Amino acid sequence: MSLLSGFPIRIDQIRSDMDNPGLSDYEVSLLQIAEKITNGTVIDISYTGTTVLIRPGSIIGGKFQHECSVSRGLGYYLEFLISLAPFSKNTVEATLFGVTNNSIDLSVDSIRTVTLPTLLHFGIDSNIELLVKKRGAEPLGGGEVRFVCPAVRQIKNMIFTDKGYIKRIRGIAYSTRVSPQTANRVVEAARSILNQFTPDIYLYTDAYKGKESGLSPGFGLTLVAESTTGALISTELNGAAGMPSEDLGKECAKQLLSEVCKGGCFDSYHQWLVLLMMTMSTEDVSKTNFGKLNKFTIQYLRDLKTFFNVTFKIEPNNDDDSINITGVGIGHINVNKNVV
């Protein structure tokens, strides 16, 4: 938010009362990406790492590579890039190395199938892509992805309040350095539950071997439910040590059903991105529908108020337990964008 708004920020007492105080390695790695994608940004970290001062510069984008910390998944860094890339001077072409799938962050599959299509609602739809070149499960990683996002002059507002009805479910079961049958068992277990609700289900397996399989064994499942109005609801689960593949498939399917029951046009993982884009959009009304707000989204609303002085009208939906979100964008215009 500091980079987008142009306001400096100082963060004090970062884990000052913990055994390992200061910034974590993945946070330092994220700040390094911020330096690569901007020009003139000054980042000062104290000797103990418990204080950070950021003086934002201009977002220039461009082509770069980065070896990400394996403490977090590549989804952690991609979310940061996705929030900045549309407002850069040049097209962002980033090649990231690290963990593609873990139990903390969004996987590259969710980013590709749900996060990027979410940007379509705001008019960001040309030549944006995420290519998974290598898989890399935790803890050692070894994955590689290429992210491309063009700069836009201005993003449009969004009116999307009709979540519709679920019409189909798609999914990806991946496996690295384990038997390809593992992914097949995950798919069969998930289908045994999902088939009770809709016949239009297509789950495909993505088994990696050799150099493209990364440095650690792993498997997992990403599920996406699409509604009649284009709403995308997703969930994912990665296998833990000793966890049967059948249990993973069934648990992931149950999590998807639970996410759908929450209601809303967007799942809980993408509420923050929708709010950010509504804030940065044209000076017109944007309106959408969410399920239950999670703790991160509530804090994110406070941060949007701090950096952009933007507030949203939140009111319950009379038809179900969801809530309606209404706000007016700040009319941000990307003056840095190169004119062809």
From TrEMBL:
Domain RNA 3'-terminal phosphate cyclase insert: 161-260
PROSITE patterns: RTC (PS01287)
Pfam families membership: RTC (PF01137), RTC_insert (PF05189)
Alphabetized CDD domains for the sequence: RNA_Cyclase_Class_I (cd00875)
Example of a GO MF term: RNA endonuclease activity
Keywords: Nucleus, Ribosome biogenesis
Main location: nucleus
InterPro entries: RNA3'-term_phos_cycl_insert (IPR013791), RNA3'_phos_cyclase_dom (IPR023797), RNA3'_phos_cyclase_dom_sf (IPR037136), RNA3'_term_phos_cyc (IPR000228), RNA3'_term_phos_cyc_type_2 (IPR016443), RNA3'_term_phos_cycl-like_CS (IPR020719), RNA3'P_cycl/enolpyr_Trfase_a/b (IPR013792), RPTC_insert (IPR036553)
GO cellular component terms attached to this protein's record: nucleolus
Record protein name field: RNA 3'-terminal phosphate cyclase domain-containing protein
Protein source organism: Furculomyces boomerangus
